[in-house]
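Progress note, sequence design subtask.
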């Protein structure tokens, strides 16, 4: 049962009352944000519904702030808005899990104020898909020039994709797709979304200012330039989700992607749901973030040997950074880092993270 207990009057008096425009986190940074998290804990607990999970949520968020210092310069109202969105989704910002990301960006329409943008990650979309009771399977895939690939539309739409028998380092991607199976048995249905590289580039040029700037200035700064394959797969998934028979609640959750929402203490006291608030700023693509912000890592399907290895290496790197940011003795940190190096699969790494979290609990 969700605890609806409100903060005490003393706690409310201790809270910094954010203004309508938002108050920037003070220069004490980490200590101030840590105190802010503690003050808003009752509201996180309301959304999450479990005290232990709320404590874990707060610890993980503080570690994330430590790894992304620019977040601590964001307005308090936008930071709390993003955190409440995470809590309502029951997801935490973590470079290891990759479910959601909090991205600081300078909003020039508000006098250059730093605001926090909520990004629903690639793996977060997969997590939401499987929360739907009708969801069966979801597969994002990249097609390479040495593979057989055929797409058929019409009354019997289908995809034929035969992987190459051997891996070739210099092969090129020629298509991307995501397939979803809804329902089970005789009532199941399969749907898919396909994009070619040229279609994806047109999409990126239309929706991403940073990508257009890359082309105009002959540079590679946007994720559409530096992580093209990953960005296309996320785009395929977002397009596919528009056609899936998912609940209104699930559609509302997915709609939180790339939003900037601010919420005040008074609004939380009145029971306003963060999902009901409109994004105060035009949705800013995640590649519009400032230098120094954490960069979401979107990984494609594990059926490709090389990308799977890349995913494991990146996850190990992120987990070691997470361990380095924990307030634990150095010998314990060294032990955990050694265990990370010994992990051979993503499953082993995920299990290790859970073990560490339980030990810290």
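Output:
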């Amino acid at each position: 049962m969700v605890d609806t207990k409100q903060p005490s009057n003393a706690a409310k008096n201790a809270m910094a009352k954010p203004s309508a425009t938002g108050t920037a986190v003070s220069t004490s940074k980490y200590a101030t944000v840590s105190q802010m998290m503690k003050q808003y804990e009752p509201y996180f607990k309301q959304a999450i519904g479990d005290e232990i999970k709320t404590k874990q949520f707060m610890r993980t968020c503080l570690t994330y702030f430590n790894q992304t210092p620019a977040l601590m310069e964001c307005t308090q109202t936008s930071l709390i808005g993003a955190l409440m969105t995470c809590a309502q989704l029951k997801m935490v910002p973590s470079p290891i899990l990759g479910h959601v990301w909090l991205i600081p960006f300078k909003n020039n329409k508000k006098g250059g104020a730093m605001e926090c943008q909520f990004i629903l990650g690639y793996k977060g979309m997969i997590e939401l898909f499987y929360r739907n009771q009708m969801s069966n399977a979801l597969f994002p895939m990249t097609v390479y020039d040495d593979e057989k690939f055929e797409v058929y539309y019409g009354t019997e739409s289908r995809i034929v994709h035969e992987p190459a028998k051997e891996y070739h380092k210099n092969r090129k991607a020629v298509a991307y797709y995501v397939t979803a199976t809804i329902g089970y048995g005789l009532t199941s249905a399969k749907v898919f979304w396909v994009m070619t590289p040229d279609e994806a580039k047109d999409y990126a040029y239309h929706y991403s200012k940073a990508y257009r700037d890359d082309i105009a200035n002959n540079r590679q700064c946007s994720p559409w330039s530096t992580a093209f394959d990953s960005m296309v797969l996320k785009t395929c998934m977002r397009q596919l989700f528009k056609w899936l028979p998912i609940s209104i609640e699930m559609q509302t959750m997915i709609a939180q992607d790339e939003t900037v929402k601010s919420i005040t203490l008074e609004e939380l006291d009145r029971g306003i749901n963060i999902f009901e608030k409109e994004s105060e700023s035009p949705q800013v693509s995640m590649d519009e973030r400032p230098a120094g912000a954490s960069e979401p890592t979107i990984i494609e399907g594990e059926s490709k040997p090389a990308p799977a290895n890349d995913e494991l290496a990146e996850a190990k790197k992120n987990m070691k950074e997470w361990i380095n940011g924990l307030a634990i003795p150095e010998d314990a940190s060294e032990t955990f880092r050694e265990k990370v190096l010994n992990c051979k699969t993503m499953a082993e790494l995920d299990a290790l993270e859970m073990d560490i979290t339980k030990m810290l609990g």
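The chain has 15 helices and seven strands. Work on this subtask will continue into the next period as scheduled.
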